[in-house]
Amino acid sequence: MSDAVEEVVDVITRSSAEIRQGLVGRRGEVDEENPSGETQAEADVFADELLAERLAAIEGVAEYASEERVEISQVGDGDLYVAADPLDGSSNLKSNNTMGTVFGIYDEPLPAPGTSLVAAGYVLYGPITTMAYAHDGTVTKYELTGGERTVVEEDVTLPDEPLIYGFGGRVPDWPADFEAYVREIESNPDHKLRYGGAMIGDVNQVLTYGGIFAYPALEDSPRGKLRLQFEGNPIGYVLESAGGRSSDGTRSILEVEPDELHDRVPVHVGNTELIDRLETALE
Ligand code: FDP
Predict the structure, then answer these.
(1) Residue 1 above 80 pLDDT?
(2) Residue 256, number of CB atoms within 10 A of its CB
(3) Percent with pLDDT over 90 in the chain
(4) 14 Cα–ligand 1 center, Å
(5) What whole-number distance in Å separates Cα of residue 33 and Cα of residue 172?
(6) What is the CA radius of gyration of the chain?
(7) What is the DSSP letter of 193?
(8) List of domains in the chain
(9) pLDDT reported for residue 24
(10) pTM across the whole model
(11) Which residues form ligand 1's pocket by a CB distance below 6 Å?
(12) Dihedrals φ, ψ of 104, to 5°?
């Protein structure tokens, strides 16, 4: 791993302690929308500004882009391009449930396809703060404390027997073929529903127990809800590095060519067998 990539991950590690602490007193909304038209929380803005400032100071970083800002910030002349969702699942602030920080480190100017990711990962603000980090085809899980990372598991792979399923979007808005697939998944008595409304929390359950998470195409939103650069690609990269699959419904999310920075993409990630079946169901 290059020194600059390592530095980006170190900065996110250190910043996560402040982002977590910064949630206190910032659970309200600001009078602004993000580029996808969602109301921003005070903590969204705080986390974005913190990461922008810290990542811009790294010599190897050329661009910083996030779900919370319209434009790409040109921050230097390095060869790394960082995209982040500084606070994924921030609608969970009000109820004090799990949230995360998602990041992708690309070697091409943004917007870029997931095939140009050199590393990606996420921080999970659960009862403890953890990180799942993928690079060079492997995933490592860490516990984060005092700005430091401690390895808890190396070469993380998805368990062979899938246990968990969780699907976003309102059921009446699901296309009929997707709904039929879901009914088949839930008819298996070995499968259990887990859905918390923050992608990172739900994906982390899948990485831990095996299974599938999806935020699918919806009847009136054929590209679903989640953003390709900031959510779909990094999560696809992590799950594929852990031996699973990602799909936009027909192919790996990492192969989707972006048109615009804030493009959305249907997200399906999990055990290979379940994603293969999903693609067959959506054909
Ligand atoms: P949020 O709007 O709270 O930031 O990033 C979007 C996201 O959360 C994901 O984390 C989550 O999976 C999804 O939206 C939840 O959407 P629904 O409320 O439609 O279930």
Answers:
(1) no
(2) 23
(3) 96
(4) 25
(5) 26
(6) 17
(7) E
(8) 2-153 (3.30.540.10), 164-282 (3.40.190.80)
(9) 96
(10) 0.97
(11) 38, 88-91, 168-169, 197-199, 215, 225-226, 231
(12) -130, 135
